[in-house]
Specification:
Layout: H1 3-9, H2 20-23, H3 33-36, H4 39-51, H5 53-69, H6 75-85, E1 90-95, H7 100-112, E2 116-121, H8 149-158, E3 163-167, H9 173-180, E4 184-189, H10 200-204
Parallel strand pairs: 1-2, 1-3, 3-4
Helix pairs in contact: 4-5, 5-6, 8-9
């Protein structure tokens, strides 16, 4: 293998400037991951989208919401439209306790539009952080309860929600929720305490206000 070929193996989609896979114009860079896929690999995925009932239902609904309401709907509206198209009637809300007001408003909107709502806050169970062996140095408020995303997921599973929506769970806690949720899950709010829950702001300003992010 040539040195150039080895270098190409280390490059991925985040190194690409053509977005040819999106445009469909065939102008792929040498390291393109699309060109590294075999016909058999692609056929297996196409078969999954066409013949797995659950995958097809979700993929088609997502594509219809994107294509039908592009630039017209807020994410709140998109979630409701997606829910309708997958036949979801009972919506679970896995919320951060710090965003209860936002979740109340979201729940109210869902109910106005005919959905049943079951919300669970992250502190459910009121388990002291010390009980799950979190070090004292990482406990900001003495006696504070631990976030409990696993129980959030289990309660929503128990109540047979059709679609779950994450509202501001912490990094890592959201990962556990996604892992244990049985229902299809999407996200309404991604927590970022510094940017007012708009994490992409740090990327937009990485060359200016947040240039520290690019320093080793």
């Amino acid at each position: 293998m040539t040195t150039k070929a080895k270098e190409n193996l280390c490059l991925t989609c985040t190194d690409c400037g053509t977005a040819s896979c999106s445009k469909g114009d065939g102008r792929y860079p040498e390291f393109c991951l699309t060109t590294q896929l075999t016909d058999k690999e692609i056929e297996k995925i196409v078969d999954l989208y066409n013949n797995d009932e659950e995958v097809r239902r979700i993929a088609i609904a997502g594509a219809e919401v994107e294509g039908g309401f592009y630039g017209q709907y807020t994410r709140v509206e998109e979630i409701m439209e997606f829910a309708r198209r997958i036949g979801a009637k009972k919506i679970g809300i896995a919320t951060c306790s710090g965003l209860m007001n936002e979740s109340r408003i979201f729940a109210k909107i869902l109910k106005v539009h005919g959905f049943e709502v079951f919300g669970v806050a992250c502190k459910i169970g009121a388990i002291p952080k010390t009980k799950i062996n979190i070090q004292e140095e990482y406990i900001r408020t003495p006696g504070a309860s631990a976030c409990n995303p696993v129980m959030q997921a289990k309660l929503l599973n128990k109540n047979k929600t059709d679609l779950n929506v994450v509202v501001g769970l912490c990094v890592g806690h959201d990962s556990l929720f996604y892992r244990y949720s049985k229902a299809v899950t999407t996200t309404l709010v991604t927590k970022d305490r510094i940017t007012g829950h708009n994490p992409v702001a740090a990327l937009y300003t990485a060359q200016s206000y947040y240039k520290k992010l690019l320093s080793e």
